[in-house]
Amino acid sequence: AQSVTQLDSHVSVSEGTPVLLRCNYSSSYSPSLFWYVQHPNKGLQLLLKYTSAATLVKGINGFEAEFKKSETSFHLTKPSAHMSDAAEYFCVVSDQNNQGGKLIFGQGTELSVKP
Amino acid sequence: KAGVTQTPRYLIKTRGQQVTLSCSPISGHRSVSWYQQTPGQGLQFLFEYFSETQRNKGNFPGRFSGRQFSNSRSEMNVSTLELGDSALYLCASSRRNSGTGAYEQYFGPGTRLTVT
How far is B84 from chain A (nearest CA, A)? Predict the structure, then answer.
């Protein structure tokens, strides 16, 4: 069965400094992995996706993630944090047994950005 | 292209009542999935509909049900509401990416259900 573990429930950075949100996955198959962001009282927005093409994936708003099979990791990074990046971030794996219709979410990492 | 829309956005119900939530997918998307988000349990998959048929189901009691119409719009129903059903209910529509073969789910803003 697939699963994802987000290693930090809360990350705090200063504006202009790098962001690192960590995620490990478990999958019997070659996984489809995603990062979603949720701003307060909003729905989920797709940041980026990995689907077995390039291992370094670029997303929106300057975010990127690197798929490392040897480490079963899919960490999310951004070189310079902006105040508007403050939100909750979810690492997600698509359940391969369910034809893409079921997503399995990590517990989320709340990102705070200090001025 | 218009995004996923959900109605209503907020709802307050009393224990024992039933509720119906609606989701309109992105045009051309035939798959609609539903999720429940709570502070304690996080985001959990309820079920998925594809071409008017339930294709996948999560581990929720039978009080939670859904359906999909021929225009791909979907509804979910919760009967005999319990306090623990208070949550943000999110729906997502998706289609298969012809290039990568993967599905990408796009979420609506959610319906905030409060059960008193």
Answer: 19
In a structure prediction context, what are the per-residue pLDDT tens digits for chain A, which is 115 residues long? 789 999 999 999 999 999 999 999 998 777 889 999 999 878 899 999 987 778 899 999 999 999 999 999 999 999 999 999 999 999 999 876 656 778 999 999 999 999 9
Cα–Cα distance between B73 and B25 in angstroms, integer? 6
With an 8 Å Cβ cutoff, are B100 and A52 in contact? yes
Nearest-Cα distance to chain B for A74, in Å, is 17
- Cβ separation of B48 and A42 shorter than 8 Å? no
- CA dist., res. A91 & res. A80, Å (int): 20
Q: Which amino acid is at B66?
A: G
Interface A:B, Cβ pairs < 8 A: 71
